Amino acid sequence: MFAKVKDARWLFVGSVILQTLIFGLGSAITKLAYDSVTPLWCMVLRFGLAFLVFAIPFGGHIWRQLRAARLRDWLPAAAGMAVSYIGANIALDLTTATNVGFLVALPVVFAPFIAIPVLRRRYRLYHLPFQIAVVVGLFLLCSNGGSFSFGLGEALALMGSVGIACALVFGEKGLANLSVVTVSATQVGLTFVASLIGALAFEPPLQVTAIEPVAWGVIAFLALASTCLTFALQNVALTKLESSTVSMLLTGEPIFTALFGWMILGETLSFIGLAGSAIIVACVIGETYLDARNAAASQTSPTPAIPNVTGDVPSVTFG
Q: How many domains are contained in the chain?
């Protein structure tokens, strides 16, 4: 029975959807913390707490795996995650949450191309129309009927998007040799170290007593739910789903951000924003269906074992 549950693809799809819901809520409330703590120090507190959650119960397991692992098994994915979170969180302090949401949700564009050299995975043409359509949908959703500008904040958010794509692709590769706990812990730990270096270098000293209770609540939620839980959900999904599929599912994050922004911050969503949401949902459903059908075909179609005239066994690829 456990094997049937393990092979249920929809469970892994659902875990990424839950991840996007948590990310959306986290994006909507992060700015509440910035009223009394700067972005990088907020990251230090968030990821420091999250790393303790991984290290205290699993420290021995993580250390044993890292001693036997190669740097390339975990460092690229961890570095990509650090870049993504630092870029996106600084961007939230420089531009609107909607612009950040649009740009950070673009790993769907980058991940399939990064996977070509890293995973030796050929690009499937059916990705292209979905990628184009989802970018249009994200633009409509996050512009929300207004204008879309591009400045330093947007550049940092775009850098964060590339970082997420790298974390997904290299994470999928690293999970072949490391556990979900180890990969997640290295991503959290390196993000903490990078945030601490940045905070010490570029921000004023942390005033712990000045942090308001609501900010502490936001930091606790971001650390426990929007970091520990979401990293675990994402890496568990990558053991069953391709990084391109996970990146497509993650495009639902701005939808939840807009929903929670309306509920918590009083932001509104125009008809154009709703149209963008509908396009994104349609793309996610279509891409997930085609990926599932392709995976099923790869698992059920037999590989010919009759030698050809040269004596070699012909190979079959499915795309």
A: 1
Residue 136 lies inside a defined structural domain of this protein: no
pTM: 0.79
pLDDT digits (tens, 9 = 90+) for 5-19: 445 778 888 888 899
Integer angstrom CA distances of residue 101 from 28, 98, 104, 107 = 10, 5, 5, 12
Both structure tokens of 195: 């945030």
Q: Cβ of 189: how many Cβ atoms within 10 Å?
A: 20
Nearest to 318 by CA among 300, 302, 294: 294
Answer whether 91's CB lies under 8 Å from 160's CB: yes
How far is the C-alpha of 258 from the C-alpha of 60, rounded, in Å? Answer: 41
| Burial of 60 per CB tally in 10 Å (0-12, 13-18, 19+) | exposed
Element (H, E) at 127: helix 127-143
Alpha-carbon distance 111 to 245, whole Å?
9
- Full domain range(s) for residue 23: 2-123+149-267
